[in-house]
Amino acid sequence: MGGFDTEFISMVRSAGLPGGEDHAPLALPAELPVLGLSDIVIFPGNVSPLLVDSGASVRLVDDVVAGDRLVCLVLQKNAEVSDPAPEDLHEVGCVARVLKMLKYPDETARILVEGQARVRLGRFTQREPYLRAEVTLLVEKAEDSPRIQAMARSLERNAFVAGRFEGERLNSARVLRSRRLDQQDGLQWSSPAVGMPHAGAGNLGVRRDVFLAAGGFDARLQHLEDTDLCWRIQRTGVPLVFAPEVVVHVRLRSTLRGMFRQGRSYGRAQADLERRYVVGARPLSATGVDDPPSVALRPLGRRPVALLRAVGGELKGFVAGGGVGRQIWRIGWYVGHHGRVEP
Question: By CB neighbour count within 10 A (0-12 exposed, 13-18 middle, 19+ buried), where does 327 fall?
Fold first, then answer.
């Protein structure tokens, strides 16, 4: 599985989190289909959207939905491997239930999963057309980490909160010099025309009743579904509150290919959200993950000359010392947004 552009996803759905007692055992089959995730970690209790874009992975999801809807989600050791083999996967993963599936004309699929329990992979019983492996349930005490405690306290005070992202622990100095990580000191603002903040799903907390009343994640969106969810919830009158004491350590993309693909995906999704939220208004500005909130990328028209000028400007920025990662991401955004803008 590849092509999903959120570095890390974790959503705490209610403030009533258990603490101290063991989880009730979950009945599992002896073996499960195994889906490798390029750069996403799923934990029990997470509700997360995923993009499935390889033929083998789509077939796996088809079989899972037709059966008991259970799949084992495992992080890959190398995010750039498109079809991971057993040796490319970590040995501990999370069993998840597929809640929804939506297929697209380009033969990709969007699924919504809910993490159930952590498991350890055993012997792989099948390699084709997709991986299957024996799994052992890891029965453990409910997580009582400082982050979970901080998120629970925040959700006792507010129905919808966003924590802080921190990048120094999981990224090299080179990556940090070339990229800017948003949501370190406040909420993200990318659309003055919309006038509402948003945050990455990797550190969002929302009470379950609020999440369900807003309709949850929109499975029709391929990217920026967290931005859409933030705006929809705020339109119901529930504010999004920044909680800096709730910290998630984030690993940024480190390859130029990954940076370009993420920028392109976000540019496409930004154009789609513009049409949804600002009908008849001027095009929205878009701030990339590399840019401070006060610096907005300019949406482009359909003319090729506009695209070439924008890309040329970003290349000049690179030559002037703007950082190759930042400029590659921005070029990707321009290319993605340009392909979606209406004439």
Answer: buried
Which residues, 6 or more positions from 205, have their beta carbon under 8 angstroms from its beta carbon? 11, 12, 13, 151, 154, 155, 160, 161, 162, 163, 243, 246
Alpha carbons 192 and 207: distance in angstroms, whole number: 27
Q: Tell me the mean pLDDT per 10 residues along the chain, length 343.
A: 34 36 63 89 83 89 93 88 89 93 86 91 94 89 75 94 91 75 90 84 90 86 88 94 92 76 82 74 34 36 50 47 69 78 46
Based on the number of CB atoms within 10 Å of its own CB, is 222 exposed (0-12), middle (13-18) or buried (19 or more)?
A: buried
Q: Confirm if 170 and 126 have CB atoms less than 8 A apart.
A: no
Is 14 a member of any domain? no
**Residue 233, domain CATH:** 3.90.550.10
Q: What per-residue string of b and e applies to 15-51 under the rule 16 or more CB within 10 Å gives b?
A: bebeeeeebeeeebeebbbbbbbbbbbbbbbbbbbbb
User: Distance between CA atoms of 149 and 19, rounded to whole angstroms?
Assistant: 9
* The two structure tokens encoding residue 236: 């119901």
Q: Give me the amino acid identity at 24.
A: A
Radius of gyration of the chain (CA): 20
318: which DSSP letter? Answer: H
pLDDT for 194 equals 80
- Token readout for 9 is 């996803």
For 298-314, what is each residue's pLDDT tens digit?
444 444 555 455 555 54
CATH number for the domain that contains residue 28? 2.30.130.40
Structural domain span for residue 242: 146-249
137 and 25 in contact (C-beta within 8 Å)? Answer: yes
Distance (Å) of CA 176 to CA 18, 23, 185, 247: 36, 38, 16, 18
Do residues 155 and 167 touch, judged by C-beta distance below 8 A?
no
How many distinct structural domains can be found in the chain? 3
Whole-prediction pTM: 0.61
